[in-house]
């Protein structure tokens, strides 16, 4: 019997659930089945991560409620005093700061070990500490440092999630439709937020502790499923990589013109590159059971595009996570249509922001695929988010209809570029041509980009805690400035993509002209040849 590999081993291991299923069925599953399974499991996994992050935002208005007319001090100490908002912001900061700190190391660590095991440990650990926050309700804990410690540990374990799921999906899908596929797949962020909001808001009637217990148990169960069934990469189940599959498919693409057989451009590019036969691929996989060497941390920073996208995400996540942690509280304190909403209604209404985010992620992915321009797409949406933020703050409270419409539009424009950068852009850069295929950088690059973003995510909510004490106008001005800076940081990349588009347009025009010219010359030569053959 083969010995169990250590946690840091890079040997290829088939998940136990898959091994048992293959043994019982007596056959190998198809490539499409594994792709669907990977998308489904990683979708559920990260949806659970986000669902487990929502309870703090839902219970804020219970821990630190508005003072009653009698002046009775309700809520939960230490969050219900004069500095309640500030302390709630500090608890958010503890989670997000350590999440961001751990993110920079989590990616490199994930690249050096089995991502399935790494992700499973992170999910189970996250669930335990989410539950421990809720247990304070039954254990009657009022020590501020207990909540700080629990959030710090939860942040450390949560950092395992994003680098792992992006790297695994990137292992199974090539670049051709990565933006659209990952845009749809990235709906897990919003779906998780929606589920977390609905579950936590519904559980408030039982006691705020249940708002943490249910999402905590959910992510633990999902972590067990990931350990049993998630396949990290095709080679783990003796299948070719997406690049090998696409090379084989593209090699058969031909375009037939009226006079000759012409190979299409994508096929020509692939045919000019050295191809590996299926027999050679199998021999290579059998001969090299070890995973590739992980890219160095500093080397990953030097990949073209990593730096500007990382800093852009800093400001994108600052905006997105301010809404994630404070939107239900803002809705509760802002009368909508001159009516004050309950905690449950405010929590449920806040899910519309995430529903808009689902459409934003899909739209950003589709547009960037069609345009083949990630930076242009991301920058455009961040600029459009500025007027959307202003309109939501000014007119979102006038009626329920305006609140719903403006909240969804804002969610679409705020979460769209955030989703694009953390998925398709990270996967593209993690497989950049400068790496020459000799290193595994997906998780490391993803961790660098999302780690920078998470620093912004840590700063946004805590600044909101301080600024909101003097009104919400300053909070929204901060968000609009952040969106503007996010777009400006991509200016150089946007200019490069525009130049590439213009150059490509002129190149295609010249190619078409040359093709027509060659065709006319061929026709003239043929006519002359036929004329020479006529009898005198």
From TrEMBL:
GO biological process, one term: phosphate ion homeostasis
Bilayer-crossing regions: 32-52, 93-110, 117-139, 145-173, 185-204, 210-232, 306-327, 347-366, 373-392, 404-429, 441-463, 475-495
GO molecular function: transmembrane transporter activity
Recorded superkingdom: Eukaryota
Protein known as: Major facilitator superfamily (MFS) profile domain-containing protein
Keyword Transmembrane: yes
Main location as per UniProt: membrane
One Pfam family this sequence matches: MFS_1
Compartments where located: Membrane
InterPro entries in the record: MFS, MFS_dom, MFS_trans_sf, Sugar_P_transporter
Transport listed as a keyword: yes
Domain Major facilitator superfamily (MFS) profile residues, every copy: 35-499
Membrane association type: Multi-pass membrane protein
Keywords, sorted A to Z: Membrane, Sugar transport, Transmembrane, Transmembrane helix, Transport
Protein family membership: Belongs to the major facilitator superfamily. Organophosphate:Pi antiporter (OPA) (TC 2.A.1.4) family.
Annotated GO CC locations: membrane
Organism annotation: Selaginella moellendorffii
């Amino acid at each position: 019997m083969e010995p169990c590999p250590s946690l840091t081993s890079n040997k290829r291991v088939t998940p136990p659930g898959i091994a048992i299923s293959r043994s019982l069925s007596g056959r190998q599953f198809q490539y499409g089945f594994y792709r669907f399974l990977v998308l489904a499991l990683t979708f559920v996994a990260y949806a659970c991560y986000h669902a487990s992050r929502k309870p703090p935002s839902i219970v804020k208005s219970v821990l630190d409620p508005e003072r009653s007319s009698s002046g009775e001090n309700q809520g939960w100490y230490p969050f219900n005093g004069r500095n309640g908002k500030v302390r709630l912001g500090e608890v958010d900061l503890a989670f997000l700061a350590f999440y961001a700190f751990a993110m920079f190391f989590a990616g490199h660590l994930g690249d050096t070990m089995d991502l399935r095991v790494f992700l499973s440990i992170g999910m189970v650990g996250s669930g335990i500490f989410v539950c421990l926050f809720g247990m304070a309700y039954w254990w009657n804990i009022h020590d501020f440092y207990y909540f700080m410690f629990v959030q710090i540990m939860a942040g450390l374990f949560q950092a395992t999630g994003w680098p792992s799921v992006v790297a695994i999906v990137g292992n199974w899908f090539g670049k051709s439709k990565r933006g659209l596929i990952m845009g749809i797949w990235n709906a897990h962020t919003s779906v998780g937020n929606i589920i977390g909001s609905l579950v936590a808001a519904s559980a408030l009637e039982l006691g705020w502790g249940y708002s943490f217990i249910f999402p905590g148990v959910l992510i633990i169960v999902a972590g067990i499923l990931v350990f049993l069934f998630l396949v990290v990469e095709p080679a783990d189940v003796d299948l070719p990589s997406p690049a090998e599959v696409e090379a084989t498919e593209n090699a058969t693409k031909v375009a037939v013109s009226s006079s000759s057989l012409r190979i299409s451009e994508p096929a020509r590019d692939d045919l000019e590159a050295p191809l590996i036969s299926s027999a050679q691929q199998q021999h290579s996989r059998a001969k090299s059971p070890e995973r590739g060497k992980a890219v160095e941390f500093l080397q990953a920073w030097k990949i073209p595009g990593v730096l500007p996208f990382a800093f852009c995400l800093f400001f994108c996540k600052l905006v997105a996570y301010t809404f994630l942690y404070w939107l239900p509280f803002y809705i509760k304190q802002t009368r909508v249509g001159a009516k004050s909403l309950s905690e449950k209604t405010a929590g449920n209404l806040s899910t519309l922001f995430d529903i808009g985010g689902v459409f934003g992620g899909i739209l950003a992915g589709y547009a960037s695929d069609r345009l083949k321009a990630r930076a242009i797409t991301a920058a455009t949406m961040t600029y459009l988010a500025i007027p959307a933020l202003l309109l939501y703050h000014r007119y979102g409270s006038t009626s329920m209809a305006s609140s719903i419409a403006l909240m969804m539009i804002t969610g679409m424009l705020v979460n769209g570029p955030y989703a694009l950068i953390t998925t398709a852009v990270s996967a593209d850069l993690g497989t950049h041509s400068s790496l020459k295929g000799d290193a595994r950088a997906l998780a490391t690059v993803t961790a660098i980009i999302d780690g920078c973003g998470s620093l912004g995510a840590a700063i946004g909510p805590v600044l909101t805690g301080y600024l909101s004490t003097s009104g919400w106008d300053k909070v929204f001005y901060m968000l609009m400035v952040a969106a503007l800076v996010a777009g400006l940081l991509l200016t150089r990349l946007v200019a490069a993509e525009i130049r590439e588009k213009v150059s490509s347009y002129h190149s295609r025009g010249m190619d078409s002209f040359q093709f027509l010219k060659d065709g006319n010359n061929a026709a003239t030569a043929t006519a002359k040849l036929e004329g020479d053959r006529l009898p005198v």
